[in-house]
Design brief:
The chain contains nine helices and 18 strands. With about 375 residues, the chain is α+β, with helices and mostly antiparallel strands. The longest helix has 17 residues.
């Protein structure tokens, strides 16, 4: 038995000492089977684990996560875990499981080569230690490592018990409450105000029966050529180049003609279900467009920002270089997110614009209707 250390000032690694990351990569390079049971993971560490498994040709892997079933799982981490679980199952490599019987807070890792135990780690390092970020960069951890076969088998025995159906289930076979992450795409944006959940609830208590469900028109998947350069994917249209955040909400005539739909070019204040306020209006030929008034990117930052926060897509800095359409929003993405439309609902509340003009207040909703 020996220790694995963090490497943080003033406790830098000394001669003969090894960090958790260094040892993990070394053990993985000498293994073909890997089993892990930890309390928490991070999105970045899941990506790093996927890379380690692929780079080292590991043919069997199981990751069991212990704390989220009862506490709730950050949505970005959840979607990253589901994506990795799908990839492993497709490749016949392994799976990601969630402990459901209790809160499991242990940190166990075992490595095997041709059925022979190579290494075992017991420690304070959660999976996030594989890829240090701002949240854990200054977090000091110590773990214990063993290469004694009997001790490795004892660790594996616990992990195998956690894999049993009475303890855990595949991540896609159970419902997990999701912790919604803040839409950082709207943070510090001009013409946008952040409000509290209590304020959102107050507005929601004043909604009327005047409500419109507006579908997000997108391609079926990344290979589908239809709708590629329109609506919320307008940045991919030919002609004038637009930034990834800019969208064009085109509302169908069957919705625009309904009683109570917002009047042409009459601004109103929109309050979103995730706590943002900005001005919106309807405009364009036949009143077909629903836009954020002061900056066309605001509506895009709200809708696409929710998808980014959920971990389902990454912003594209230069759309013209995205020839694989990785930044395109598709039905597949919206299905994973849990919603394919936004809801526009009028409230009984009025507000006063900076110039003294009275405006109606409407609710905009795009959070998924239920948890996973």
């Amino acid at each position: 038995m020996r220790l694995l250390y963090s490497n943080i000032l003033p406790l830098r690694l000394e001669e003969g000492q090894q960090s958790f990351i260094e040892y993990f990569n070394e053990a993985a390079a000498n293994s073909d089977s890997l089993e892990i049971a930890v309390g928490y993971v991070s999105k970045a560490s899941l990506f790093e684990l996927q890379k380690i498994v692929e780079d080292n040709g590991i043919s069997n892997v199981c990751l069991n996560i212990g704390m989220y079933y009862l506490e709730g799982m950050p949505e970005g981490t959840y979607h990253a875990a589901v994506s990795l679980n799908e990839a492993w199952k497709r490749a016949g490599v392994g799976e990601i499981r969630i402990v459901k019987a209790f809160k499991y807070h242990g940190k166990l890792y075992t490595f095997y080569k041709k059925g022979r135990p190579v290494a075992g780690i017991i420690g304070s390092n959660n999976l996030g230690a594989l890829k240090l970020e701002a949240s854990n960069l200054r977090q000091y951890e110590i773990s214990t490592v063993t290469d004694v076969p009997e001790e490795i088998e004892e660790i594996s025995k616990i992990i195998r018990k956690l894999k049993e159906p009475n303890c855990s289930a595949n991540i896609q076979e159970i419902r997990i409450p999701l912790v919604r992450e803040i839409n950082s795409a709207l943070v510090d944006q001009e013409f946008v105000t952040k409000i509290t959940s209590d304020e959102v609830a107050a507005y929601q208590s004043k909604i009327t029966d005047i409500s419109f469900e507006i579908p997000l028109k997108v391609p079926e998947n990344h290979a589908d050529p239809k709708m590629r350069g329109s609506n919320i994917n307008v940045c991919y249209a030919s002609g004038r180049k637009r930034v990834w955040w800019e969208i064009e909400m085109v509302v169908g005539k069957e919705i625009r003609d309904l009683p109570g739909y917002p009047e042409y070019q009459v601004p109103f204040m929109a309050v979103t279900d995730d706590g943002w306020k900005f001005k919106v209006w309807t405009c364009g030929q036949n009143n077909k467009n629903l836009y954020s008034k002061d900056d066309l990117k605001i509506m895009g930052r709200w809708i696409k920002g929710r998808l980014v926060a959920s971990g389902l897509v990454e912003p594209v800095n230069q759309v013209e270089t995205d020839t694989a359409f990785k930044g395109m929003i598709t039905e597949e993405i919206l299905e994973k997110y849990g919603r394919k439309s936004i809801t526009l609902t009028k409230t009984t509340v009025k507000t006063i614009d900076e110039d003294g003009t009275e405006m109606d207040v409407w609710m905009l909703s795009f959070l998924p209707n239920t948890d996973v």
